[in-house]
């Protein structure tokens, strides 16, 4: 049975979706529900707050990065032991990837597309400031724009007064939409912002927990939770995504499924080329902590399913684990922690030496910056002969990329969808081959292939590229075997 869901959408960005969704997750959990939290799109930050509220990892549903066919399986995987799910949308309900050449009836990657794939009802969050009776016309448009979307109710946000709320309730009733709650204006309730959006929950520490608690209290006091639970539903059905099957079910039939799902597997893949147990579970060190917060839960699950033992460490204060055979440097905000990263000189030296020695390294965005000579004047690992600088220009958007060379992740010519999200730029020629090429929004050669390092600004979703994860773990296994002489 598919877990029932409610999709939190809005007419536009800035309407209060994150506050409402986070508070709703927390309030429903407090009411006794096991809530699975999801975010539409490639966002890494909102799921962190969702996770605090739910007590379980927040996950993403992005048809662009993983393919529409994987949305329902990933949803079922992420909600498999829950009785309710809350899916926070992205931007406005019908906003998605813009394709000037062939605009789709429903924008790819939009909240509307995900709601339709799940067969889940939409709860529309409306910023009530400036609205009166004309709200009825706006709601009528959203309710009738696409017959494949079921608008199940409205949440009025930032209501000015009881009289204002009453006027808006009448407007909603005029178009037959129930109001499931009304939140008063709470200017003091906010989540801190940064140049790329909100500040990740892990960086905000105790204040993030306090903010989530305040959101939970607000929603619990002003939203009809019973009505939300009754509204929830999901008509779509498909087998749940499984990381072991995604990597290669035939090669890994005996893998400890619980270990794979936790991303800490120590069991080797089966097959004619299986290695002895001593070297078949390579240690993959994954950077975490405040500087490296961008990632997907499925990444660790797939690494575990491919036979790796995943160990998370904090490059601000820690060293790579003993026996590391592969390094994953995900995205995040290293520019906010450049001085502290630079202060951990033993790790910088070790990473540079490991790269030269041939250790497989997968670096995305923040990871790319960590491998440069310097970041805003602070020394970095120096694996790549370029410098990184923070700038005023935001680079943002999906990319249809082609691998320009063989690497520990992709073969030359493979096509991949990714997402750029940064305000830094690189200076210097470097001596590495480019990792990616794409044509839109302009002809671009990007990233770096050097030694067995794959470094790029491009964020990819592992669930959309399980073969790349298996290839990476295979390279780590070879590196470990060569180092121990068991090859």
From TrEMBL:
UniProt EC number: 6.3.5.9
Reactions accelerated catalytically: hydrogenobyrinate + 2 L-glutamine + 2 ATP + 2 H2O = hydrogenobyrinate a,c-diamide + 2 L-glutamate + 2 ADP + 2 phosphate + 2 H(+)
Signal peptide segment: none
Database matches in PROSITE patterns: GATASE_COBBQ
Stretches assigned to the CobB/CobQ-like glutamine amidotransferase domain: 285-461
Pathway annotation from the record: Cofactor biosynthesis; adenosylcobalamin biosynthesis; cob(II)yrinate a,c-diamide from precorrin-2 (aerobic route): step 9/10
Residues annotated as domain CobQ/CobB/MinD/ParA nucleotide binding: 6-196
Keywords attached to this entry: ATP-binding, Cobalamin biosynthesis, Glutamine amidotransferase, Ligase, Magnesium, Nucleotide-binding
Annotated Pfam families: CbiA, GATase_3
GO molecular function: ATP binding; cobyrinic acid a,c-diamide synthase activity; hydrogenobyrinic acid a,c-diamide synthase (glutamine-hydrolysing) activity
A GO BP entry: cobalamin biosynthetic process
Site (Increases nucleophilicity of active site Cys): 459
InterPro entries xref list: CbiA/CobB_synth (IPR004484), Class_I_gatase-like (IPR029062), CobQ/CobB/MinD/ParA_Nub-bd_dom (IPR002586), GATase_3 (IPR011698), P-loop_NTPase (IPR027417)
Catalytic residues as annotated in Swiss-Prot or TrEMBL: 365
Domain of life where this protein originates: Bacteria
Cofactor(s) the protein needs: Mg(2+)
Residue span of region Disordered: 257-277
Domain comment in the entry: Comprises of two domains. The C-terminal domain contains the binding site for glutamine and catalyzes the hydrolysis of this substrate to glutamate and ammonia. The N-terminal domain is anticipated to bind ATP and hydrogenobyrinate and catalyzes the ultimate synthesis of the diamide product. The ammonia produced via the glutaminase domain is probably translocated to the adjacent domain via a molecular tunnel, where it reacts with an activated intermediate.
Misc remark: The a and c carboxylates of hydrogenobyrinate are activated for nucleophilic attack via formation of a phosphorylated intermediate by ATP. CobB catalyzes first the amidation of the c-carboxylate, and then that of the a-carboxylate.
Function: Catalyzes the ATP-dependent amidation of the two carboxylate groups at positions a and c of hydrogenobyrinate, using either L-glutamine or ammonia as the nitrogen source.
Assigned protein family: Belongs to the CobB/CbiA family.
Protein name, per record: Hydrogenobyrinate a,c-diamide synthase
Organism for this UniProt entry: Nocardia veterana
Encoding gene, per UniProt annotation: cobB
């Amino acid at each position: 049975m598919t877990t029932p869901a409610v999709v939190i959408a809005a007419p536009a960005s800035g309407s209060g979706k994150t506050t409402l969704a986070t508070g709703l997750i927390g309030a429903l959990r407090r009411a006794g529900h096991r809530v699975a939290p999801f975010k539409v799109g490639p966002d890494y930050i909102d799921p962190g707050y969702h996770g605090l509220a739910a007590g379980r990892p927040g996950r993403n549903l992005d048809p662009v990065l993983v393919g529409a066919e994987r949305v329902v399986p990933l949803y079922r995987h992420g909600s498999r032991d829950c009785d309710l799910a809350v899916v926070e949308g992205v931007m406005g309900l019908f906003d998605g990837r813009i394709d000037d050449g062939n605009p789709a009836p429903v924008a790819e990657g939009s909240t509307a597309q995900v709601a339709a794939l799940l067969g889940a009802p939409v709860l529309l969050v409306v910023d009530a400031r400036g609205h009166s009776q004309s709200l009825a016309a706006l709601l009528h448009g959203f309710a009738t724009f696409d017959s494949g979307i079921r608008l199940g109710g409205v949440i009025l946000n930032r209501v000015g007064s009881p009289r204002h709320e009453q006027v808006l309730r009448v407007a909603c009733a005029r178009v037959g939409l129930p109001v499931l709650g009304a939140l008063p204006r709470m200017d003091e309730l906010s989540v801190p912002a940064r140049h790329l959006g909100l500040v990740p929950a892990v960086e905000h520490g105790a204040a993030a927990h306090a903010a989530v608690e305040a959101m939970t209290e607000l929603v619990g006091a002003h939203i009809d939770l019973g009505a939300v639970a009754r509204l929830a539903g999901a008509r779509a059905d498909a087998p749940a995504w499984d990381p072991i099957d995604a990597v290669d079910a035939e090669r890994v039939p005996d893998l400890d499924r619980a270990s794979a799902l936790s991303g800490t597997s120590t069991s080797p893949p089966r097959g004619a080329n299986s290695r002895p147990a001593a070297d078949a579970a390579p240690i993959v060190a994954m950077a975490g902590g405040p500087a490296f917060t961008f990632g997907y839960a499925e990444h660790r699950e797939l690494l575990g399913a491919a036979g790796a033992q995943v160990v998370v460490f904090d490059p601000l204060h820690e060293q790579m684990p003993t026996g590391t055979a592969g390094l994953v440097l995900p995205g995040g905000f290293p520019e906010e922690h450049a001085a502290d990263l630079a202060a951990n000189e033993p790790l910088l030296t070790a990473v540079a030496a490991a790269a030269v020695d041939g250790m497989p390294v997968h670096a995305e965005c923040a990871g790319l910056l960590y491998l440069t000579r310097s970041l805003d004047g602070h020394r970095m690992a120096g694996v790549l002969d370029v410098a990184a600088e923070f700038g005023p220009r935001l680079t943002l958007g999906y990319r249809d990329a082609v691998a320009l060379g063989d690497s520990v992740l992709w073969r030359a010519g493979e096509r991949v969808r990714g997402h750029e999200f940064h305000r830094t730029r690189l200076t210097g020629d470097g001596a590495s081959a480019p990792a990616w090429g794409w044509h839109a929004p302009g002809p671009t050669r990007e990233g770096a292939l050097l030694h067995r390092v794959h470094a790029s600004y491009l964020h990819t979703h592992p669930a959309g590229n399980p073969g790349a994860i298996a290839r990476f773990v295979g390279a780590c296994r070879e590196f470990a075997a060569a180092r121990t002489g068991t090859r």
